[in-house]
Specification:
The structure holds 2 protein chains of 2 kinds. By secondary structure, chain A is α/β, with parallel strands linked by helices. Among the domains of chain A are: 220 residues, no CATH class; 79 residues, Orthogonal Bundle (Cytochrome Bc1 Complex, Chain D, domain 2), CATH 1.10.760. Helix content of chain A is 13%, strand content 28%. In chain A, strand 1, helix 2 and strand 2 form a beta-alpha-beta unit. In chain A, helix 6 packs across helix 7. The radius of gyration of chain A is 28 Å and the shape is elongated. Chain B is mostly helical. Chain B has 2 domains: 185 residues, Cytochrome c-like domain (Cytochrome Bc1 Complex, Chain D, domain 2), CATH 1.10.760.10; 143 residues, Cytochrome c-like domain (Cytochrome Bc1 Complex, Chain D, domain 2). Chain B has a two-stranded antiparallel ribbon with strand order 1-2. In chain B, strands 3-4 form a two-stranded antiparallel ribbon. Classes of the chains: A alpha/beta, B mainly alpha.
Chain lengths: 505, 380
Amino acid sequence: MKKKIFLGLLGVLVVFVAGAFYGRASKKDVVISSSTGGASYAGGFKSDGAAAPAGGIRSVAGPAPTNVVVVKNGESILSAVKAAPKGTIIRVMPGTYHETVYIDKDDIRIIGVIEHGKRPVLDGEKKLNDAILYSGNNFVAENLEIRNYKGNGIMGQAGNNFEIRNNVISESGVYGIFPQLGQNGIVEHNVVSGIADAAIYIGMSDNILVAHNDVFDSVAGIEIENSRHAIVEHNYVHNNSGGLLAFVTPGLPIKTTFDVILRNNFVVGNNHKNFGAPGSTVSGIPAGTGILVMAADDVVIEGNVISDNKVSGIIITDHAHASNITMDPESDPNSDRVKVLDNVMLNNGYDTITEAKALLLSEGKVNAKNLDIARVGPSPGSCITNRHQYTAVGVDDFAECEFTNTATTVNYLLPPVPPREIKPGERGRVVFLGICSGCHIYNGRMIGPPIQAIQALYLENPQGLADYIAKPVKKRDDYPEMPPQDYLDPETRLAVAKYMLQVTN
Amino acid sequence: MILSLVLVTAATTSAAGPATSEFTLSTSCPPSFEKTEAGVCELRTLYQFYDSLEGRGLGGTRTALPPHRDGFTPQQIDLGRYLFFDPVLSGDGTLSCASCHDPARGLSDGRARSIGIHGADAGRAAPTLWNVAFLKRFFWDARADSLEAQASGPLYSSIEMGNTPVRLLASLNGNATYRRLFRNGFPGERGEITEKEVFTALAAFQTSLISLNSRYDRYVHGYDAALSPREIEGLNVFRSFVARCSECHTPPLFTNEQIAVIGMPEPAGRPFDVGAEKTFGSPKLKGGFKVPTLRNIARTAPYSHDGAFADLRAAVDFYNKGRGNAVPKGMQLYLHWHISDPNLTETEVDRIVDFLGALTDETFLPQKPARVPSGLAPIK
């Protein structure tokens, strides 16, 4: 890949190292590195497909839409979704819509039309559960305003190649935006506030970009949980209880979080009272935490402006120190290989928690008025650049990072994965084996007649057999009437008919 | 065409005619399985046309299934079926596997807690066996990691089937039919029937118990009308983040196979069941149990590890009564974070129950043999 070439070039630029002098707290040499030079991070996700276009991938939902419908105020978005064929853009005009919209098919885009600042509003009136539930691939939600739902604003269950952008979500339950169990998605330019858990929550997903969002007044700002290959950048994360989170939550079926880059975000004044539901994982976050890494591996923290978070700018911890969570023998409880590069840290930890004060004392930092970084629990293989600039506890044993920036990593997105092509013959065979074989075998009596007898009747007439499958009539006194298989589409019925007429055993 | 008709007639005649021996092992794979050129049975389902994140078989509608066990021969599966229904597997010849995993009762037994040998209380409810081919953990407390490891549990438990390894092998090896059938099922082996072969055959049969053709599945595969408006309403409550059912009962299997501490009640007079705390030696898992599948759930009342709920409505309603509503006073449990206070309306609870009914599919119910090699009655 081209990335490797870039890397080689950058590697030639030697890390700028200033002369050594003795620090006050320890007698170690201080190493000063410049993030404008030096090696770039090379440990992240590498796509094995074609090289990304110049400037990186900016959209992931394919294929291109082929159909447009318009929903006007007073009409139903859900009805439009139900009627829409794949490849439809549903343009939603300004107005107020009280509904839960679910999308269980591929290639649907719900795109609001903003007229002179007026958006289409989905209002759950604190009665409806979720605004949007999608499980299809290539789903896009744009330009919507979502408020007053009890569950989530936008929730995905296993849809891949999703794009959620330019939405305004407030007071909408547990999560504002929650794609789960999906691969390859973008969450950008959303304004999310007043959420009782995470404003943006990436759960058990891979290859994700969360960028340019404004998240505030929530318990957690942006949470990357049990997910891999995620970049969180250029977000404004303010006045939450905790700003940015990279977690492994125990007890989930996918056990890891690794390869997460948190860079160039504003993480400011996340001191909101924690109003997380009792028992929720985030209810244990100390209000006043800028960035929290718990049990996640290979998290790079770079170029953020982290200021005015009263407990600590960054907390790096493990499962053992999180008293409110369960255990999971299959989860590694530690935050391994955390990489703290240059960040601007201002006025963090000015009113920190007792535990953090004790840690500061234990390292002899009796006069510390602030706390930028607190590490508790094992964090093997971690590194830090320019550590002397931070007031920190628990990072003395961190190594110097061997790189100063992540500049060569544009993002971890993939080109839209084309739908898998299934040949009709293959579909016919699998439908026969997966469904029909419960009643029909080749040459014996089961619930229905043997295939051989069916072949004798329909040998030259697969369409006739396909039609019979859809609307069977009782033909033989010695067998029960067949239930209609009209839930299979006509193409599949014909494919299974053709398959049945050619089997030989 | 004439030739085909003649063949049909011939086949029908021979099937109806007298068998050379009363017990022969099938050479055909069960429904939903394809016999490969190597002569083993491999599962075929429409879900194989889908993918899943990290290959884990968890997600939404069109999501692939988790990795599964298959590749047994038709003979091994059929031998497992005879063993499964044969009371000779129990210590006193009164119980078969099917006594507690009865095809007529959703491959469970309709009891709050199963009844073992001499009427013993077996302690927990019998889980269904539908789709066990996809599971990695067995028993409510997840103490076995394979079907083979699981088999020795009930067989040798003094409150379940009450047998011993020695007595089990003695009775099977003392039976000429079983000796012949095992050599047929395991043609590479010679000599006595081994415990390993017994467990393999039982695993082969159990992994053939597939239920993936419910009305919900038809909906998934693209037929919108497969679910009624009420059931779709229920699906949307089920997967909403207010009810959060699908966070643990995750499609397509409707379990994520994790241990979850729910804080379910014990029936009056029963001591608190610590569940997975014992398996993992972890107090944080006190009262934790494996998340059960919800496929065919309407067929397996009563519900929970100890049958605390008589029907589905009561089971769903338990979650709606709020976090920790049945935790014994003074006991600290690390309740799962998804156990919340959903405050669903009564109608929403009803709709979830409606939706769960759409997960029923027993089209591939196994055939109970009319007779088993021991000569005992197949199910007591």
